[in-house]
Amino acid sequence: MKAAAVVYKPVGLAVGALGGVVAGAVFKRVWQWVAHEDDAPDATDEDRGWRQVLIAAALQGAVFALVKAALDRSGATAWKRVTGVWPAGRG
């Protein structure tokens, strides 16, 4: 079982990298919908207020966590379906 978990590591890393790309695209769309702006503020944007910067950061964190969890869970489920073993070695 531990060998399957070790073999899953590169798959998990690839899924994580894909998750970052997907989360970035999802966040951009959500920000455009919520704020009616193309770009979310950076923490160092002088022309943006604290409230807008912190709301953007919280929303970005939530979107990234949601996408990461969804992709991690999907990857683990698919791995178990293919190999019969849960990636963490429990299964």
Automatic annotation (TrEMBL):
It comes from the Bacteria. InterPro entries: DUF4235. The chain crosses the membrane at residues 12-31, 51-71. Keywords: Membrane, Transmembrane, Transmembrane helix. The keyword Transmembrane applies. This is DUF4235 domain-containing protein. The lineage of its organism: Bacteria, Bacillati, Actinomycetota, Actinomycetes, Kitasatosporales.
